[in-house]
Amino acid sequence: MRKLRTLLPVAAALAAVAGLTGSSVAAAAPAAAAPARLRLDITFGADPRIDIAPPGPSVGDLHVLDDLLLKGGRQVGHTGGACTLTNLARPEEACTITYSLPRGIITGQWLNTPPPHKVVAITGGTGIYRNVRGEAHVVEFSSERGAVTFLLIGAPASL
C-alpha cells in the first residue's frame, strides 16, 4: 500500500507533464500544406518480362519498365524500373521505379497487382524533387496508355 501511495503522485505528475507537452506541441505544429499535383500521361513501352528458372511464370521472374511521360501530347520524361514476381497466387510483384523529368528525378516503389489503379510510395528525388514525399497514382487505361498523378509534399508550388 505504501508503494501505491508513493507511485500515485509520481504517475499524476508524469501525466500532467505529458499532457502539457502534448498540447504545446499540438498548438505549435503548423498546418499541413496541400500536396502539389502533377499529372502526366503515360505511353507504356514493351516492358519485357524476363523468365527466371523454372520456365514459365514463377517467383523471381522480372518485369522491366520503360515508359514515356507526356504533357499535352509532348514527351517530358520517361520511366525506368523493375518488378520482381513475389507471389504467383495473388499475383503480386514488388516494384521500384524512377521517373526522369526535366527538373529532376522522382523515385518510388509499390506492390503491383492486376487492378488498373496503382498507388506508388514516393521514396526520394533529385533536383527540385529532392525533399519531396507523397504518392503517385497510376491508372492504366489500356495496355498502351495510362496516366500518373503525383501528390507531392515538399515540392515547389510551380510544377
Overview of the molecule:
The protein is an alpha+beta fold and 159 residues long. It folds into two domains: 1-30; 36-153, Allene oxide cyclase-like (AOC barrel-like, Beta Barrel). The chain has one helix spanning 2-28; strands spanning 36-43, 49-50, 62-65, 68-71, 74-87, 92-101, 104-112, 117-125, 133-140, 145-153. Strand 9 and strand 10 form a beta hairpin. The longest helix is centred in the first third of the chain and has 27 residues, at 2-28. The radius of gyration is 23 Å and the shape is globular. The protein starts with a helix and ends in a 6-residue tail after the last strand. The model is unreliable at 1-26 (pLDDT under 50).
β content, as a range? over 45%
Number of domains: 2
> In CATH terms, what is the architecture of the largest domain?
Beta Barrel
Q: What is the terminal separation in angstroms?
A: 65 Å
Question: Class of the largest domain in CATH?
Answer: Mainly Beta
Alpha-beta content class: alpha+beta
Averaged pLDDT, please?
Answer: 85
Report strand order across the widest sheet: 1-4-5-6-7-8-9-10
Q: What is the fold named in CATH at topology level of the largest domain?
A: AOC barrel-like
What is the quaternary state of this protein? single chain
Query: What do we call the CATH homologous superfamily of the largest domain?
Result: Allene oxide cyclase-like
Q: Helical stretch count?
A: 1
Q: Cα-atom Rg, whole angstroms?
A: 23 Å
Order of helices and strands: HEEEEEEEEEE
Number of strands: 10
- Which overall shape is indicated by the principal axes computed on the Cα atoms? globular
Residue stretches low in confidence (pLDDT < 50, at least 5 long) are 1-26
Largest sheet: 8 strands, antiparallel, barrel
Helical coverage, percent range: 10-25%
